[in-house]
Amino acid sequence: MGLELVAIGPGQPELRDYGERAPGEGEVLIRSTLSSEKHGTSLLLYKGIASVSEKAFDGALGLFMPLESGKGWKAPFPMRLGNMTVGIVEEA
């Protein structure tokens, strides 16, 4: 069993246990030695300050627009952190 870093809310990190699964076709299992979150949108979502975190995406316009009642895009909490990694391939 491994550990993963998860944001359970804006600025609220938590280490959680998770069960590993065998890699499927076209996948590899990497034993991470160092992981990091990119400094762009993901980090802004984690901090709760992303400009898109409380807006609705209009697919026809391709733009984030002000929220309308009951519609909108919310930051995906809980959110796994660490989308860049360096590690060792364990299984392919």
Tell me what you see in this structure.
It is a single chain. The chain has 92 residues and is mainly beta. 8% of the residues lie in helices and 42% in strands. The protein is built from 1 helix and 7 strands, in the order βββαββββ. Strands 2-1-6 form a 3-stranded antiparallel sheet, with no helix packed on it. Strands 3-7 form a two-stranded antiparallel ribbon. The protein has a two-stranded antiparallel ribbon with strand order 4-5. β4 (56-58) and β5 form a beta hairpin. The longest helix has 7 residues, at 41-47.
What's this, in brief?
The chain is mainly beta and 92 residues long.
Separation, N- and C-terminal Cα atoms: 19 Å
Gross morphology: elongated
Using only CA atoms, what is the Rg?
17 Å
Mean of all residue-level pLDDT scores: 82
Main pleated-sheet profile: 3 strands, antiparallel
Number of helices: 1
H and E string:
EEEHEEEE
Poorly predicted spans: none
Per DSSP E runs of 2 or more residues, the count of β-strands stands at 7
Trace the largest sheet across and list its strands: 2-1-6
Features:
single chain; 92 residues; mainly beta; 3-stranded antiparallel β-sheet; 1 helix
What does the secondary structure layout of this molecule look like, with pairings?
Layout: E1 2-9, E2 12-18, E3 29-36, H1 41-47, E4 56-58, E5 63-65, E6 79-80, E7 84-91
